[in-house]
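ok so I'm stuck.
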Amino acid sequence: MAEQKRDYYEVLGVSRGASEDEIKKAYKKMARKYHPDLNPGDKTAEEKFKEVNEAYEVLSNPDKKARYDQYGHAGVDPNFGAGGFGGGFDGSFDFGDLGDIFGSFFGGGFGGGRRTNPNAPQRGESIRMSIAISFEEAAFGCEKEVTVERYEGCDTCHGSGCAPGTAPEVCPDCHGTGTIQVRRQTPMGVFATSSPCPKCGGKGRIIHQPCKDCRGTGAVRKKKTIQASIPAGIDNGQTISIRGQGNAGKNGGPNGDLLITITVRPHELFRREGTSVLCEAPITFTQAVLGAELEIPTIDGKVKYTLPEGTQSGTTFRLKGKGIPSINGRGRGDQYVTVYIETPKNLNKEQKEALKKFAEAMGESETQGQKPFFKKFKK
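replied:
not stuck anymore, here's the structure
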């Protein structure tokens, strides 16, 4: 069952025989009492303000007032005269209603639909920025101080935009709605469209004495230093959000967020793939043949690794749990180390002779290493 509306005269607190001037004075008094700017965040006051505007829209219009006095709320219903009251179609149509009708079938987007109250609380805009951090800072997380320029609520007027001791006037043309209805005569009849009120610029209110500090905007631009916590495991190009550290909201609305995109500087030794850390480590020919105990750099510091005998160049081994911590806090990745044999250069005569003797002892010839290669090539 639809909610029963209160009598419009009762809403404004006037008698049924009240004059146009009395209705107007009563409206101004009630509108000031329940205006959203004077009752930030008060949903009850916001509903009362809408109710007062609705009542005044009817009672300030002689035709609507006459229909209301005769038929009550049904007389000012948009469908009045289209059926039960024997009037028929009078040739006028509101594009706002058309938008609502088509919106119910096609999901909105036609004729503008319903418009939001310009004085309703609005969330502030978010601020975007980027910072660069090191490979280790991305791996283990860090704290960074960032400085942003943002709009904050004016301390002088507390966000109202009015000079201290003054209040905004509800626009007399649009009665605080921010829009006015324009009727146009066409061959198809009279069509009504809604557009921003030119008197108040669509704001629904007029500030006669703007605040000197914010010039009537309700917000001032300030620099703010904020502590940003970068989580462990964050990757290059990812964005963190710090709630409520963006621009100030309007009409008592919440602040926007601060969105920080992370750039990770390249590391001299390490590369990253997901939570894995990749690196390369040089070894000597002797270490590859005989095996050795190596010192391998990791993001935690150096660790020891026992290289087995006969390791081939290009072999990759894993250091478990030495990778990047997962950003959701569930464990760590691994580090993968690929070894390659460094070929010695500028050998002296004795070293060369020693290598030749080693080759002879191994039964090597100049083409021995190529024979398996050519066999594969022939196949």
